[in-house]
From TrEMBL, chains A, B:
Alphabetized GO MF terms: 2-aminoadipate transaminase activity; aromatic-amino-acid transaminase activity; pyridoxal phosphate binding
Protein name: Aromatic amino acid aminotransferase 2
Lineage: Eukaryota, Fungi, Dikarya, Ascomycota, Saccharomycotina
Family: Belongs to the class-I pyridoxal-phosphate-dependent aminotransferase family.
Entry-linked Pfam families: Aminotran_1_2
Residues in Aminotransferase class I/classII large domain copies: 104-484
Record-level GO BP terms: aromatic amino acid family catabolic process; lysine biosynthetic process via aminoadipic acid; tyrosine biosynthetic process
Keywords: Aminotransferase, Pyridoxal phosphate, Transferase
InterPro entries assigned to the protein according to its UniProt record, in alphabetical order: Aminotransferase_I/II_large (IPR004839), Class-I_PLP-dep_aminotransf (IPR050859), PyrdxlP-dep_Trfase (IPR015424), PyrdxlP-dep_Trfase_major (IPR015421)
Length: 524, 524
């Protein structure tokens, strides 16, 4: 553990903030200056200052939530489960309650988030991703998109550079554009070898050491944006060893690490082609402690001695995207800057969403503790995360099993990269060398047309690159999701149609093309 | 009605957009280029593209809302009402339903807002504030703060100017700072004469006609930010005649009108000192039609032939702030630009909040229609707005009655400006001329200390100015809210304490001062 204070963080990271930071101050118009020492405040003042509506004017006086005992399974006949419990959001909660009442939830509130939800986020971080310093903090955002766009705003100006993995979640580009600044990509190792997956530390180090040779017109990067676990789109996960190397490189070059981790809790167990439907989660072979200490990948936060990491989590993947709730964890100085950006834009995340999440998680915790006396309350939520991870393992199993049965797969016309976690599977198409020589994009676009005819929507790999040209030679893949299916038949049909499309590619492309495509595929 | 098209609006208003507009494009990575004409799309494709979690993985499968039949009253013994009905948010709604099911509400969704809520906003505008052109549209925001900060982002650069009323909601300043740009204030007529209240059109016209004399270093303003109805902090409302003048001035100088209207629906009936508790709402003397056509002040939208007005509404004051839901109405071109700012930052407002609001309003509409056969569904919501306006009228009556009984009020040491609507009452302190000569701020700060000792929180008027110096001579007032009280005693005590503080001011100030204050009052 290091003993850095908020002031130390200010010294370290203020130089990396956007030049607009100073004018992004927020002070309430109800704050006055220094009060005279003689003043004796009344002990029971009446409130005629800020315009908060009294809670009896809210049209809602109670909310009851039907909470599923278990997430649905792909093989359910109906997506509505019979087993559920009811969680109440009542108007008032006793003082100090871990739950949130409507009188607070529906009112104006602290822009950092409600205390009850902040407490939960701190329990999550303490249990799973505790930093190696004490002065860390969390702030609630209106989902990770909001948090990440605010982090970009906090750090970047038009002359700032952000380092990004060459394949990435493409929305980082508009967030960056919103902030100003430019992007430089870092090479990924897209490999089945778990010890080498993800950012190539040697390439990154070389890039930074010889920055002005590579990028004579760009400032050195202020931050690295990385999806280290269950990377989108490739599904890959950086090993602890890779993370340690990257972390040290970032320390050396004074780079903030923005760790976007939407998928980390959706950790799958390895696929066994001999027992395709095996799922150690479902058989109860994995305890919450195992999940936390052995299954989940360690966050960059757990390596962080310098307050250099900003970890972005979301409740979208394990609870629900429509809640629009996420949180950022980092050193208290930078977190206060994210809060300031809340102050001057969105104010605070939906209190209705916060109350739904808080009260649901508190009840999950109480239920779990009733069966596991010594467990911390947050384990109720982690148990739910495991159930979701289990269902994603099931879904992965279904898709993999179906794909493994396809002739074009057996003939190695295409293959799968096994994701360690997340919602996505990478389907690598083994294009013929002569197709690669002309245009990988054109061949993949042709395949996309075939997929539309055969009836299968997937995402083209090159659409998820920072720079199509730089990454095209590694873009002969499709990203397929396992999240949306409502029936195992979706995977059966999906695999068959994928197979048919690939077979057609190999028989039609360059020989007897059905589609008129330009030299480089689709026109933009 | 004018027949302007989206393209006309583009011609008119693109020149007023921020220079960053072009780089704020958003396109989904699942969009590909132009598809070949030969392609025959499969009619029942399977979905392996975007990562939307299947709805049976959401932990919530139903939400039941207890909806009050009537808002609470100040004289209720308990803020929880006995009379309520239950509104369900079920997992699935039939196609075309006006309600929102959880399968959609908890999912990723359109960044413009859910269709069901957009439909409601269009019903509100069509019923109450219909523009004089057809191609208007609405977009959902995460509350008005979010909407207004996005409008600032959409329009303003560092060299842009925003015109603002000299007294205003002070958070406009951080929104503006977030966007860049500078502020120029326009003089207000703070007068009891309803025909003259609000922005002084002559002063505004003179300012713009002789811009370079007044502001040689600022560009001409792109937009005017105005709280035209129930202005914050003064409670004043611009007459239709004043609005017409302002609108014409804005047309002449090509200025966009940003109409922030959080309080418009909280319209009070005039106070009658002979019958202090009179409330025509409560006695049923006002129909929904009366309220819409006679009581509510007309939005700038209703004058708008050129698509020049962006009206910001919020559900915070009449439903609940914690929902974080607002909407912007304006011409379809500018609304599409607000949507783009959603795309690249917050994405979409809480779906849980949207579902709560939509399903509640749909049920309110159905109930109202059961009793009023020919009424449109939205009248159920308008009826609720009237009930809230009625309660604010009650609250205003209570405070006014208590204040009118105070000796210092009778002696004209202070007076009240009657608000036409909203949550705030302006208490003007009739400072002695010799105090005004030295420092109005110091005298008001002294009064603030006395209020703290006597036990009454209010907001200092000068804290709600754009430029303290410019407006100080009109800043001898306090802003008091009527919204937060939970009991009539709050107003009784508040009035007594206000009285005592003012009496003490007149006996202590400059004579035998208890508090050590600098020459200009509080230090910052």
């Amino acid at each position: 553990m290091t003993q850095l204070t908020v002031n130390d963080f200010k010294q370290l990271y203020q130089p990396l903030l956007s030049k607009y930071d100073k004018q992004r101050q927020f002070s309430s118009f109800t704050d006055v200056g220094e009060l005279p020492p003689e003043l004796q405040r009344h002990k029971t003042p009446v409130w005629l200052a800020n315009g908060q509506p009294f809670e009896s004017l809210f049209p809602i006086q109670e909310i009851d939530l039907q909470i599923r005992e278990n997430p649905g399974s792909l093989i359910d006949e109906t997506p509505i489960s019979g087993k559920y419990s009811t969680t109440k959001i009542q108007m008032y909660e006793p003082k100090g309650s871990s739950k949130l009442g409507l009188s607070d939830a529906l009112q104006y509130s602290d822009t950092k988030g409600h205390t009850q939800l902040l407490n939960i986020t701190k329990q999550i971080i303490s249990r799973i991703s505790k930093p190696k310093y004490d002065e860390w903090d969390t702030v609630i955002t209106c989902g990770s998109s909001d948090g990440l766009s605010k982090i970009c705003k906090m750090l970047l100006d038009e002359d700032s550079t952000l380092l990004v993995e060459e394949f990435t979640y493409p929305n980082i580009l508009p967030w960056l554009n919103y902030a100003g600044g430019s992007i430089v990509q870092v090479k990924l190792n897209v490999t089945p070898d778990p010890s080498k997956q993800g950012i190539d530390p040697e390439a990154m180090s070389e890039l930074l050491e010889n920055w002005s040779d590579h990028h004579p017109n760009e400032n050195k990067p202020k931050a690295l944006y990385t999806i280290a676990t269950g990377h989108n789109p490739t599904g890959l996960t950086q090993s602890l060893e890779v993370r340690e190397k990257i972390y040290n490189i970032c320390c050396k070059h004074n780079i903030i690490i923005i760790e976007d981790d939407p998928y980390g809790y959706l950790q799958m167990t390895p696929y066994d082609s001999k027992d395709p439907m095996a799922n150690p989660y479902a058989t109860g072979d994995i305890s919450v402690d195992d999940y936390v200490s052995k299954i989940l990948s360690p966050s960059y936060l757990t390596l962080d001695t310098e307050g250099r990491v900003l970890r972005c989590e979301t409740f979208s993947k394990v609870a629900a995207p429509g809640l629009r709730l996420g949180f950022v964890t980092g050193n208290a100085y930078l977190i206060s800057k994210v809060k300031t950006l809340n102050d001057i834009s969105t104010r605070f995340a939906s209190g209705a969403s916060q109350a739904i999440l808080v009260n649901m998680l508190v009840d999950m915790g109480a239920k779990y503790q009733a069966e596991h006396k010594s467990a911390p309350a947050i384990d109720g939520w982690i148990d739910w995360c495991m159930k979701i991870a289990s269902e994603y393992t099931n879904r992965r199993n279904h898709l993999f099993k179906c794909v493994h049965e396809q002739p074009a797969f057996k003939e190695k016309k295409f293959e799968l990269i096994e994701p360690s976690c997340g919602m996505f599977v990478t389907v690598v198409v083994n294009l013929k060398p002569e197709w690669k020589k002309t245009s990988i994009k054109r061949a993949m676009d042709y395949l996309y047309c075939l997929l539309l005819e055969e009836g299968c929507f997937a995402v083209l790999g090159y659409k998820m690159t920072v720079d199509e040209k730089f990454s095209m030679e590694r873009s002969n893949f499709l990203r397929c999701t396992i999240s949306k299916a409502n029936d195992p038949k979706v995977f059966e049909l999906g695999a068959q149609r994928l197979n048919k499309a690939v077979e057609r590619l190999f028989s039609e492309y360059g020989v007897n093309e059905k589609f008129t495509l330009g030299k480089n595929g689709f026109k933009k």
